[in-house]
Description:
Layout: E1 24-28, E2 35-37, H1 53-59, H2 61-66, E3 74-79, E4 83-89, H3 101-104, E5 107-112, E6 119-125, E7 134-140, E8 147-152, E9 161-167, E10 172-174, E11 184-188, H4 190-193, H5 204-212, E12 216-220, H6 229-236, E13 242-246, H7 254-271, E14 277-280, H8 289-308, E15 314-317, H9 319-322, H10 340-359
Parallel strand pairs: 11-12, 11-13, 13-14, 14-15
Antiparallel strand pairs: 1-9, 2-3, 3-8, 3-10, 4-7, 4-9, 5-6, 5-8
Amino acid sequence: xxxxxxxSIDKNLEVANKVNAPDLQLYxxxxxxxxIYGLYSPRTKSTFRRIPENIAAAVSEQVLHLxxxxxxxxxxxxxxxxxxxxxxxxxxxxxxxxxxxxxxxGFDLYIDSPDGYESLYYKTFTxxxxxxxxxxxxxxxxxxxxxxxxxxxxxxxxVSDLFIGIAKDATLGEGAPYRDLPPVVYYGSSITxxxxxxxxxxxxxxxxxRMLQLDFINLGFSGSGKAEDAIVQYMxxxxxxxxxxxxxxxxxxxxxxxxxxxxxxDAIRERNPDLPYVMISRPDYxxxxxxxxxxxxxxxxTYHYAIAKGDQKVYYIDGGxxxxxxxxxxxxxxGCHPNDLGFSKMAEAVCAVLKRALRDGKLLK
Length: 365
């Protein structure tokens, strides 16, 4: 039986395959005045990536594949064009049943205040279901004037090129700034990478960025966040304002987690003695409570180890408490990966810690 096209009944669910904009001018986001955040050397590499290719290859075959997934990537700019078009070139399309294509392979747009202290969701550049090598999409603003915008890159897809289209006679300038601080670096699993947010701006790191105006780098690697020496040493050398160790899930067993969790803390702390270091245990606590308790114990042991050494810039977030409260059983798509509700609760937990670090002047400049 053929697939049923819901758009034949509800035109509000129709997705355009082609853009109608006769006065369109396309610009490569790798060139000024666009500012790209969250990606490694984005102006010089032939495809967007999160870490150097040689580092990814040294970590694992899986990370080599995943490092070109653009989770955490953003482009900012300002324009008075009445519309914005994207033309995204993607070598292949990532699909899986329990994450919307808008999250895995789509881009979404936020309107920022000129000072960067407010960033509100506008709409999503919705990808066609049957796309094979990228897509074009157009969003029209409901009001005129200059708009400062942030466009989030896909969470689970490679993007080799991205072009922004505006009206030919429109202005194009730099986007809103983040706080004058280095990015926050997040490391971990598929949850860290953004699985399974409905769109990129709903990954928890992006929510924290909007709440606190903090740039970030997403180093979540689906099924592959295992704290190998190559990735740990690379992260230890990054200039960052805080480090979020969302590491727990992908350790194959408790013994492996015990062998690597404190070791990662030691390696990063050795090269960054004043860096705020935040440890999180897994948020999907109850589907496998016995294993979750054992893993949380490892994370807590590392935290107590750090405290005993006199570390005053280490923080612990109990993942088992993150989803508790109303609708705690509605926070994931599969008992593991957060949906937008789950990610919002994760963002609140991380935000509370980083707010305290900001207030106390502990974030590194």
